[in-house]
Amino acid sequence: MTFGNFTAEVSKWKFKEVGTSIWLESKPGGCAEIYSDLLYNKKIQDPFLDMNEDQVQWVSKCQWEYETNIEIPRIDNKEKYKLIFEGLDTFATIYFNSEEILKTDNMFLKYSVFVQPKLTNTIRIVFGSALNISKMYEHRHGKLKCWNGDPSRVYIRKAQYQYGWDWGPKLISCGPYRPTYLISYQSHINDFYVHGDVHEDLSIVSGYIETDIETDTQVVISMEVRSPDSIETVLHLKKPVSGSGKFLQEFSILSPKLWYPRGYGSAALYHVTVRLISKTGNIICQVHKHIGFKRIQLIQHPFLEQSGTSFYLQINNIPIFCKGSNWIPAHSIPSSVSKTDYKQWLNSAVNANHNMIRVWGGGYYESDFFYNNCDRLGLLVWQDFMFACGQYPGNLKYFVESVSKEVAYQVQRLRNHCSISMYCGNNEDYQIAEAYNLQWDKKNHTGDYAKTSFPARTIYEKIIPELVAKYHVGIPYHPGSPWGGEKTSDPTVGDIHQWNVWHGTREKYQDWYKLGGRFVSEFGMEALPSYSTFMRCISEISEIYPQSLVVDFHNKAAGFESRLASYMFENIRLRTMDMKSWIYATQLMQAECLGYAIRSWRRNWKGKGKRYMGGILIWQLNDCWPVTSWSLVDNFKTPKLAFYAAKREYRAIAVGVQRQGNELQVWCVNDEGSKENITLSLDIYEVFSGQLIEHYEMYNITLEANSSSEILSNYELPSDGPMVANASIIHKDEVLANYGDWPQPLKYLQFCKRSIKLEVYDGYVVISTTMPIKGIELITENNLFFEDNGMDLFPNKEMTVSCPELKHTDTVTIRHYE
Ligand code: BMA
Fold it and tell me: The Glycoside hydrolase family 2 immunoglobulin-like beta-sandwich domain covers which part of the protein (predicted)?
């Protein structure tokens, strides 16, 4: 917030195609993009509806211009006037009162220009066609390798997913997509940064506040740090200054309240305010930030009993098992994502027991609002730089210069966010190098790879790490995702993307336990979104069936028919192929698949010196349009059943069961402190009849702190028919964790008729059964959110499922696997 000076923000643009004469009003709000503006004016059909995406491709081939007037309250010759663009997508020529003042070519940069305004001013921006320009570069420099989208995309610094992805439409937009404003000042705080080093015994944080100011006169900088609970003023200092520059103020805080990721403590944030104060004591300018302090290490040490090295984060001396998913842009048109949307999306990550989210490299650097919320929620952010699945032209001067500015700017912005916990050079560009045999000499560490066919190594191995080390000291940097070891697929070093389920060799998901790595930063399975989502994106009801043209159009994954079909046919009994049953079946399959992976991989978090796996990130949390994809939650924020599977498996305490032939192994993962006097209760039921065959209890179990504990290694199942095992971890009558392990594949199971008792109340339902039931889905007509869904239910384990908006008069229907 600024005082004294003024800020005039653009709230409304008008726009037209270059060369035409009719101006149209932009969507109100000040952040504008061509697709949303044309849609707002009903000049195009909704690209998310039916197959309209194909009809709107002409838009990206045109040039567009945006114009607005900006009024200012006064002109004072003593003041400076600066026009600021938080984000321009991408090739913009900007005119201020008819004079050209700036040309841009990078969507990820903030631009500012000093101007001499009048009381009323015109800003006009002409946007070139990014598609035509990237094609022009490609024509000039040659076609480069890539997966997903038009390969010319790698030549320009624009959100790559807009060129089309295996979950997203091709909508190559343009426009002033982030805020534009004019500020005036005599003295001004451009920014400040708080750097804090936490001592290894956590007893003190010491560092500095670096304030970047501009001033012609003598002013006083005041720096105030208040404790996270706002009660205590930890620091309040004033310092006179008489010129522009960066001012450093050292500080230290004894017994600091540190920032912890979710599940490990509170995400404590100090309140830091920097002010400029005039000679007369007036506040001229003030900037406020919420700052957290953490000690972070990426632990990569060798093991005694396994090859390779660990790969996990240690925060405030606590080893953290990262549980989360990958974040893609929440909309094909970035400015369409509202603050409410961001909050809801991040809350869904929290609701699914995430402690980490990976901002994937094919989108854009998110707004501060996104990261502020991650800071507040204690969500660790794995931040990719914006390169994905491509051979980038790291040998071209214009490209390297633009990237260097972008990285320097973004790191200096992001370093204010305590949630940032890992920087990563790119997404899968090293895999591209492997797939296309690009020249990648692993012994060459000169930092100059411009003459090889993999010139972007200079960016990932020299430019970015140097800038991260300069501006955000102490945050781990990883050159790529995946990266490490002899090959990017090496499961013993660094992270891997495990796509041999779905893509690759199409392994069975029951074999996930063989497919882990030190950190799996991507793996996934597709499922259809909900029926209501199809109702909203397909206008002809006759097109809403599993194999229809339009349903298929809303799936962009290569070979999805055979991949989805093979996992379905391997696992799930299909009694009918009507749309609702197909949706349920694909969602159940996805939920089973992801549940298997998380359960078996968390088992490898084995305690000191044996942290064989340090994290799991599901591909992907969200969608950018209505589509069948790997997401947990669809574009209209309706969770799929896999959302709940992730939520259950990511709980702080979770029990796992693995079958080896006729024997069961049982373990329990525990992210909390150690727990004693734990009981394991095992109920074995015959699947068809649902009859209880055996009950077994084991007492006095200790769950080790922050690790998995093996409980049973060879419990023999009765051999007369398929059996389902229900394992519960109990402490003094409280069930801490519960899981049902069914014979695989599920398609061979037969059941006698099941019944579920359902009671509906305001805000919750109670369900119970006399026989084990798989995959219960609770549904209301208006899609209300249940806190759990798609769950298994066992006799004598009545479940209360909260559903805050439910009324006792609502109709709740139930579907389950049979
Ligand atoms: C990964 C991602 C994306 C892609 C996904 C699904 O490798 O990095 O590029 O969308 O797989 O194929």
Answer: 188-294
